[in-house]
Amino acid sequence: MLNKPAGVVSATRDDKDKTVIDLINFPGRKEDLFPVGRLDKDTTGLLIITNDGKFAHNIISPKKHVSKTYEAIVTGKISEKEVKIFSQGMELANGNKLQPAQLDIISYSEKDDTSKVRVIIHEGKYHQVRRMFGAVSQRVLELDRVKIGLLELDDTLERGEYRELTEEELNLIK
Question: Within the chain, which residues score under 70 in pLDDT?
């Protein structure tokens, strides 16, 4: 379990940017490690690093319907209209059809004209959460993945820190 910081890419190697694998001090063959799924360079939060392909497939396969939960700060005031659009699924400008997603409004800052929201998706298309908000004329300022399936990010981990999953945590996402 890695608490991915912003500015780091979800890749095993990159010629110009620091990768999530660069953050890991692994006693075995580091080249066997890979991230389970991806988070954008600017997205923070829960990322699982493994060397087990079957385990990774069980998490990222769309057929498994493993949910991914994000918290975001977005521009403007999110209303029940956007909540309904997300819940019905949507079609993006490029024609990609998205499954229904859950959008919960956490708070609104009148001072900054921003909303804090929680989004739960069951697929992981390219820049999906950012593009979903773009489709309803909102811009994502911060995006943090806090949960995969029933596995929650350990809130004692600072950005860039990681730890092994416990047996109990592994069972939450198998």
Answer: none
| Cα–Cα distance, 105 to 62 (Å, whole number) | 26
Q: Which class is domain 2-63+155-165?
A: alpha beta
User: Which pLDDT belongs to residue 165?
Assistant: 96
Phi and psi at residue 115, in whole multiples of 5°? -115, 140
User: Are 38 and 129 spatial neighbours (Cβ–Cβ below 8 Å)?
Assistant: no
- Please name the residue ranges forming H helices in the chain: 53-60, 80-87, 128-135, 167-173
Give 123-155 pLDDT, tens digit per residue. 878 889 999 999 999 999 999 999 999 999 999
Catalytic (active-site) positions? 40
The verdict on pTM exceeding 0.90 is yes
3 state DSSP class of 33: coil
Residue 157 neighbours by CB distance under 10 Å: 15
Residue 62: per-residue pLDDT: 80
Cβ(1)–Cβ(48) under 8 Å?
A: yes
Find out whether 35 and 22 touch, Cβ atoms under 8 Å.
Answer: no
The ranges assigned to domains in the chain are 2-63+155-165, 67-148
Structural fold of domain 67-148:
Alpha-Beta Plaits (3.30.70)
18 exposure class (CB count in 10 Å sphere: 0-12, 13-18, 19+): middle
